[in-house]
Structures are given as structure tokens and as C-alpha cells.
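DM from R.C. (forwarded with permission)

"hey, sorry to bug you on a friday — could you get me a structure for this? deadline for the figure draft is monday and I only need the backbone to look sensible"
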Amino acid sequence: MSLDTSTLYLVATMVAGLLGSMLLFFGSQENIPALKWWGTAYLLGAASVALWTLAGPMLGQMLSLALNAVGFVACGMVWNASRVFHGRKPNLPGLVLGALAWIAAVMTLAPDASAMRLTIGAGIVAVYAALTATELWTERRRTLQRRWPASAVPVLHGFVLMLPILLGDLLHPHENAFDGSIWVKVFAIELVLYAVGTVFVIFMLVSERAVTVHKTAASVDPLTGMLNRRGFAEACGRVIEREASAGRPVTVMIFDIDHFKSINDRFGHPAGDEILKLFSAVVVNNVRISDLSGRIGGEEFAALLPCPLEEGVIVAERVREAFEASGIVDETGPVDTTVSIGVAGGPAGTELEVLLAAADTALYQAKRSGRNRVEAAEELPLSLENWRRKSAGTARPSQPQPGVARLA
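My reply, with the result:
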């Protein structure tokens, strides 16, 4: 079956234009600026490819030059779309720099230097492609597991936009070769598949970003920016399992700001919120990067440290002293900023609930003893039921002893 090249390119540009319009519409509906950039790049690329492929011989030199420049601007928009997607400002000078470089090169080169023009054009596209791939590859805030396709597709995007133009420049002197080349026909089919695949990856990026945002919102306390009770428990579970595999102990501490209700009554809830934010900063600044901390409710905070109980007590005392030395002064006088802390530690595999219960008992003792102090749990929690059950699941089940009835 013979495939007409013009028809294939017409289908490709129509698909690209349709997908570009869809990206623009979705970006406007969901207020996602990056989709607007990607959609506009699709439309510009589709327009330049269509006009150059179908009407190239009828265009004058200036119009041909402008179409090439539009294609380079589309490549620059793909790069800027990746910047905008990751919260960075668009680089407007970089957006048009490729087109300006192309125009300057064409105006200075001899008319018969077609090979040099092709080399310069391909180099510009390669630079934009490398910038786009680098922008996605070095982005560390996202948790996208399929980083490789996300980086590779924008690279292909730039080449797909420019390759028809490069082929046209190369083969237009031999019109029959251009129309009948099997490579041009294969590329036209690939362009349709690429356009659809690119949009799929773009929506994969957007979807994963939305999932990450919602998951973060469900795990983070909006006032202090620390983990909330749910996020703290989930993160602690992973750390406890990791430390248990290595046979290392863990320590948990619970903080309760002293007389917090009186602070709210005396200065108002906005001032109480500021105290909470201040204390969260004190905790974060006085624990290690490897330690976990969170707000588990009201004026109560908690932290998990992969260390023995003795080291945890030292850290707790450091937090207590730092908060006491905050030195907040109101028009009525200094504001007491003290905290009571309960600390509990256990051997490898101790469940978080057990550690929290023991630390809460120690916290109650600290409050009964006058507040503004650190108390360690007197007895180590020894409940390892969950860890033992999980470990037993990997071992061979024991055989029932003779004379012992098996329970149904």
C-alpha cells in the first residue's frame, strides 16, 4: 500500500494541533501554566511543520526563515515548560535566543551553504533538548519513579519538531526524492505516535505531581510544616523497621508546651500559633537530619531518634534549654516558654505505640515534678510482638509437639 507523504504530514500536524489545543484547554481549566506552555509549543511546532512541508516551495526566503525561527521558538517553549512545571520562572531571553541565532547565521552565511545551516539548526535543537532533559533530570523535589522517560521525551520533542524542517531543507532541491523517500514517510507515522506518547507522559507528570501534593498535604501539619500524626507514624514505622533490621535501638520523645492554654488566654490564639511555630523551629534545629519530628496534636510534639536512650535524653535537654532561652517579650512582660519532655527508648523492633506510651508516662511524671524538665521512662518497653510476628513469617513453621492438641 502506497502512503502519500503530504497526507501523512497533514494527519501528523492535525494530531499535534489537536493535542496542543487539549493541553491548552486542560491547562486553563486546572490552572497549570506548564500545560499552557507545552500546548502552545505543540501548536507552533505543528503550524511550522505543516506550512514548511506543504507550502515550502511557494514561500519566499523571508517566510521560510520565519517558519524555521518559529520551530526554534517552539523548542525553547518546551524547555521553559519544564522550568515552569518545577516552579521556576521562564527564561524569556533563552526562549528566543535560538531563533535569533538561526536568523543571524542564515543572514551571514552564503546562499549555497546549506550544510552549514543544517548543522547550526541541529545544534540549536540539541542545546534546547539538553537543557530540557537536564531540567527534568536534576529536579529532586518530585518523587517520579519513571525519571528516564520523563527526561527522554522532551529531548525527542525538540528533534521531532525540527527534523521535518531539516529533511525539507535537505531534500527540497530534489523534489522527487523528498516526496518518495521512505524515511520521510516512516517519520510522518512516528510523528503521530510521538505526539500521542508525549502527551501521555506529560499527563503522567502532572498526575504524579498532583498525587504527591495531596499525599504531602495529608501528612504535613499546615501550621508548623512538620509531619502530622499520620505522617509521623508512617515515617517512624519505616525507620523502626530499618533500624530493627540492623539491630539498632530507637528512642522516642514527647514534648508538651507548659501552660499553653494560659498563653492562648492571655495573648490570643494568633500568639499561640506563633509559639507553636517557634517551638517547631527549635525542635528541627536541635535534632539531626536523620531524626524524625512531628506535631501529633495541639501543643504536643514528638520525635523519633535512631539512637540509645541516653543520647535521646541529651537531645531532649538541648531542646528544652533552647526553647526556654527563646526570650519572647510582650508589652506586659516576658512570656514563659518552657516545655516538659518525656523520653523512652527500646531495643530493636520495639513498636512505635509502645514507645509513645512509655514516653507519655514519662511526660506525665515531668509535669507532676514541676514542668520544664526532661524525664526518662523508668522501664524499657519490651513488647516486640509485631516484629516477632513479621520475623516468624519468614521462618519455617514449627511442627506441633506430640500430645499437644492443635486449636481450630
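R.C.: lifesaver. The chain has two domains: 5-219, 229-380.
me: no worries. The CA atoms of residues 106 and 117 lie 7 Å apart.
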